[in-house]
Design a protein that fits this description.
The complex is a heterodimer of chains A (391) and B (278). Chain A is an alpha/beta fold. Chain A has helices spanning 22-27, 36-46, 62-76, 90-98, 122-141, 154-157, 160-176, 191-197, 201-215, 224-233, 286-293, 307-310, 330-346, 358-370, 377-390, and strands spanning 3-6, 50-52, 79-83, 101-106, 147-152, 180-185, 222-223, 256-259, 264-265. Chain B has helices at residues 19-46, 58-68, 109-119, 126-131, 173-188, 192-202, 268-277, and strands at residues 12-16, 51-57, 74-80, 90-96, 136-139, 142-145, 161-162, 206-211, 214-218, 222-227, 235-239. A seven-stranded mixed sheet of chain B has the order 1-10-9-8-11-6-5. In chain B, strands 3-4-2-7 form a four-stranded antiparallel sheet. Classes of the chains: A alpha/beta (391), B alpha+beta (278). Bound molecules: S-adenosylmethionine and iron/sulfur cluster.
Chain lengths: 391, 278
């Protein structure tokens, strides 16, 4: 991922109950005005192509969107936006086409299954959900192929009946031409949210397996989670999501945020204090060295054969909200790794988790992290192959 | 404090709460560092002090070496950490004037404490130092200290600090009078502004929290993470402050100034959503 541009910071037209940006909204002063020149300068300094992000990106007035996207097209050849979809109008769709804007749209299901993406009261919530659903249909009709993000919680997959309805809806999305969907396990920001919406480990695992099964019945729509796990077990970590890449919470290298005043910021997922800390200089990989050594009963990953692939996952989802721990979704990921590993072995493949090269990869990862370098698994495998050739 | 059997290589990473805090305080940090170094050297030359310890980062150490020689001040440095491992570099420097032999100095409780901690290969001693103070509160693994405690030790990774690396208590009379003497001398040698900034900083709320060999230190303007002794569970020290800087950020947890009303999650409409979801 490149630059996330947040002209209006985390300002949003709705207030999804689980949003990881609420700590910031809770304490921050209300939004400051943005400065087009400073934003463009910061994007260029960061090395360009940007996703218009938020809060809600489409709260930016249409004239300013046009200015940003026409500039983006000229500079980078295309544009991207991440939106909740509820504010998309025909004018936006025309601009998406004109300025080659790739649209990412977040929605957790149709109708009441999306109620957690709350808009102040039930009537407004349902109305905006309908608008997001209509927007998906319209985008698909216009050939704009939105990619969808679905966050999993009790509100949309908490019962067998809800899960079935989600399945039917995903089949509809597949029919109308949606090709990609990302499934988010919910990151918990407060105990009240956990109590009401968070799925148990078992429910999260069952839901993911349900979607995995569903994938085989779909024409073209794919969930990236499953292919990413398989790629990792095949030692191919090229182009995967940031959660598998030893993200440093002080620099979040996959997310280079640019705020409306040009200030650089980090990914909001690790922001538990509600403070948008200025990005640090060089990354540190201390979390990963520490997780490798710390016993699992104390929140680490010591002795786990999937560590080189999973690396304790996203620091934003860490146990107790403390990035020094591994993810609280550890057992969910472990199950997916185990099942994929089992299948690969049955098919005659040797997954990285059981391969003789694993200790070498782990050792080289620790050596790299100790020197402030974050090597890819692929590069380490290539290095091992080279060494073998020489000897 | 159960310490696990591994070592996190030296590192330091910082996050300012805003560009404004950085612009204001980065510059002040540099001035405070310069003021402490010059004040100490001048006090030694004048004979106010015969010897003094400073904890400094690498670049300050070289500055001290350069300045001390013409003043006939002897510099004896101890590298803090392992010289063979890459990372930020700190020294404990013992400065003595021409009338004093650094090898025949009398020991004190903090020198003895520092030596003992180093012999055990421990990086920090603040947890035990708080347990050794008279007035602290304990709630599980969180220790709280009132303001008026010696917080200088928490700033060692950011600022030049006076005194040895470790101390046995954070409410030690010797340290309190050393700090007082430093503030007096800063004023005498023309660093009134730096003295004001430093005393302001020492009165801010601070949180030190170590877990798995990583310490996270939070102050109202900057947070930093650095290597420490690897504990199985988090150990937290909170020092209540008397002051909060204008550049300090509001935040959801200690030590940040909390808002009485959280704009989203305390709102009626948000709570209506929770009600609907439950
Ligand atoms: C913070 S939103 C900002 C962009 C835009 N408003 C949107 O909804 O797509 C980015 C993505 O993070 C997801 N998200 C927000 N809070 C989350 C949480 N606590 N756990 C998992 N995903 C979350 C949202 O559903 C959305 O897909
Ligand atoms: S629409 Fe996006 S930014 Fe707004 S509350 Fe929902 S997840 Fe957060």
């Amino acid at each position: 991922m490149g630059v996330e541009l947040r002209p209006l910071g985390v300002k949003c037209n709705i207030a999804c109950q689980y949003c990881y940006q609420h700590p910031q909204r809770d304490v921050e002063e209300s939004t400051k005005p943005y400065d087009m020149d400073k934003m463009k300068e910061a994007i260029l300094q960061e090395g360009g192509d940007f996703t218009l992000f938020g809060g809600e990106a489409l709260l930016v007035p249409i004239e300013d969107l046009e200015e940003l996207w026409s500039w983006g097209l000229e500079q980078f050849g295309s544009n991207s936006v991440q939106t909740n979809g509820s504010l998309i109008t025909d004018a936006h769709i025309a601009m998406f086409k004109k300025y080659k804007v790739n649209v990412g749209l977040s929605i957790d299901g149709p109708g009441d299954l999306n109620d957690v993406r709350w808009a102040g009261n039930l009537e407004r919530t349902r109305k905006l959900t309908q608008q997001s659903e209509d927007a998906i249909a319209q985008l698909a009709k216009e050939g704009l192929k939105p990619s969808i993000i679905i966050t999993l919680h009790r509100g949309n997959v908490g019962t067998a009946e809800k899960r079935k309805r989600m399945g039917a809806w995903i089949k509809e999305l597949d029919q109308i031409g949606v090709r990609a969907a990302r499934l988010h396990l919910m990151e918990v920001e407060s105990e009240s949210i956990r109590a009401i919406y968070h799925l148990t480990e078992k429910e999260n695992t069952e839901t993911l397996l349900y979607f995995h099964q569903l994938e085989s019945e779909l024409k073209q729509l794919r969930f990236d989670i499953f292919s990413e796990i398989e790629s990792l077990l095949k030692a191919d970590d090229h182009g995967l999501s940031c959660v598998w890449k030893a993200c440093d919470p002080y620099t979040t290298s996959a997310v280079r945020g640019v705020e409306g005043n040009g200030q650089r910021s980090n990914c909001g997922r690790t922001n538990k204090e509600g403070i948008d800390f200025v990005k640090s200089g060089l990354p540190s990989y201390a979390r990963y060295i520490s997780l490798y050594h710390t016993p699992q009963e104390h929140g680490g990953c010591n002795g786990c054969r999937f560590f080189a692939m999973c690396k304790g996952h996203c620091p934003g989802t860490s146990l107790e909200g403390d990035w020094r721990n591994r993810t609280e979704h550890c057992n969910v990921w472990k199950t997916l790794f185990e099942l994929t590993e089992e299948r690969m072995i049955a098919e005659g493949e040797v997954p990285l988790s059981t391969h003789g090269i694993l200790p070498f990869v782990e050792q080289k990862l620790i050596e790299g992290w100790s020197q402030g370098i974050n090597p890819s698994i692929q590069s380490l495998i290539a290095q091992a192959a080279q060494q073998q050739k020489v000897s | 404090m159960e310490v696990l059997d591994y070592n996190i290589p030296p590192f330091k990473t910082m996050g300012w709460v805003s560009d404004k805090a950085k612009e204001t305080w980065n510059n002040r940090f540099e001035k405070i560092n310069g003021a402490i170094i010059f004040t100490t050297l001048k006090a030694l030359v004048k004979g106010d002090w015969d010897s003094q310890y400073l904890i400094v980062e690498g670049w300050s150490y070289f500055k001290i070496l350069e300045l001390a020689a013409p003043m006939e001040i002897t510099v004896k440095a101890t590298f803090l950490g392992n010289e063979n491992v890459k990372g930020p570099v700190y020294y404990e420097v013992l400065l003595t004037n021409k009338h004093t032999d650094p090898d025949t100095l009398k020991s004190s409780c903090c020198i003895a404490c520092t030596t003992a901690i180093r012999e055990k290969n421990r990086k920090e001693h603040v947890w035990q130092a708080v347990l050794n103070t008279k007035a602290y509160q304990q709630e599980g693994q969180i220790l709280s200290l009132s303001s008026g405690s010696d917080t200088s030790v928490f700033w060692q990774r950011l600022l030049v600090t006076i005194g040895t690396q470790h101390r046995c208590s954070l409410q030690c009379k010797r340290y309190a009078s050393l700090q007082e003497a430093l503030f007096d001398k800063l004023q005498v040698f023309g660093y009134e502004q730096e003295a004001l900034w430093l005393s302001e900083m020492y009165s801010w709320p601070v949180e030190w929290c170590a877990s798995h060999g990583i310490c996270e230190l939070r102050t109202p303007i900057i947070k930093l993470a650095y290597d420490t002794d690897p504990t199985a569970i988090p150990h937290t020290i909170r020092v209540e402050g008397d002051n909060y800087p204008t550049e300090g950020a509001p935040g959801k947890r200690f030590p940040y100034r909390k808002r009485k009303f959280l704009r989203i999650t305390d709102s009626k409409s948000f709570k209506a959503g929770l009600q609907h979801g439950s």
